[in-house]
């Protein structure tokens, strides 16, 4: 039986996880957020041309505010989502509820296995984030907290404030022939002019794409692009390509804004009273695979 969270309920669950962590929650810049839990948009951002490294490539270094994206099938502040007809990315909540009540949950181009994974998802039955396990690449990119980028000629490091996680992108490299499956996958970066394309594969299939729980398999292939359009902004896109869960690739587009602040320590494990007190279940991996071993699209 499907007990699916609404966006509001999913955000509330995420709020419990955020509150459980030991973290100072005030940043220097403040402005009323559009979504509960959303990092405020900086009051001002640098203007002028994008800075460059000595090698001539754009410099992405800095602390960046990203849109909080609890549902990748919806538009939001600084976010262009994707949805399949009869759904639309700008649907009001009432229309989504109407379609769901009519039995249509295919707001994304699901395969049969992907749709079943989505329809049967129940975060109250032990969502992995409530157990403070790694969010994974997509859900970390969708989180409401800032990310710091550190960069040189060989690597781009993504330093997530969310749970103090990090991820290293290997520039001008190739994926290993046999990638060890991990929560965040293995990332390589290639330059196309001033646009950095980050290609990530090798996921363990244990995470979700967003807070509301849109699924993916271990066959997920994420393609992200970053282009520093000026001194204060990055144009960001993410394409989800997962032939086990989706019949075709689909994309989101977002705008990041440079912040004048530092990322903070974040410990989900400390003071996680909901997990310690048994109010939420500890997550365990599924007993059997949800997806076929291989799929040819």
Overview of this protein structure:
With 297 residues, the protein is an alpha+beta fold. It has one domain: Beta Barrel (Lipocalin), CATH 2.40.128. It is 13% helix and 22% strand. The protein has helices at 7-20, 93-101, 112-119, 137-141, 273-276, and strands spanning 62-65, 79-80, 147-151, 155-160, 166-171, 186-192, 195-201, 221-230, 233-241, 250-259. Strands 1-3-4-5-6-7-8-9-10 form a 9-stranded mixed barrel. The radius of gyration is 19 Å and the shape is globular. The two termini are 29 Å apart.
Q: Mind telling me the CATH superfamily name?
A: Calycin beta-barrel core domain
Structural class: alpha+beta
* Biggest beta sheet summary: 9 strands, mixed, barrel
**CATH topology category name:** Lipocalin
Q: Layout of SSEs?
A:
Elements: H1 7-20, E1 62-65, E2 79-80, H2 93-101, H3 112-119, H4 137-141, E3 147-151, E4 155-160, E5 166-171, E6 186-192, E7 195-201, E8 221-230, E9 233-241, E10 250-259, H5 273-276
Parallel strand pairs: 5-6
Antiparallel strand pairs: 1-3, 1-10, 2-10, 3-4, 4-5, 6-7, 7-8, 8-9, 9-10
What does this entry show, briefly?
The chain has helices spanning 7-20, 93-101, 112-119, 137-141, 273-276, and strands spanning 62-65, 79-80, 147-151, 155-160, 166-171, 186-192, 195-201, 221-230, 233-241, 250-259. The chain is α+β, with helices and mostly antiparallel strands and 297 residues long.
Summary keywords:
alpha+beta; 5 helices; Lipocalin; disordered N terminus; nine-stranded mixed β-barrel; 297 residues
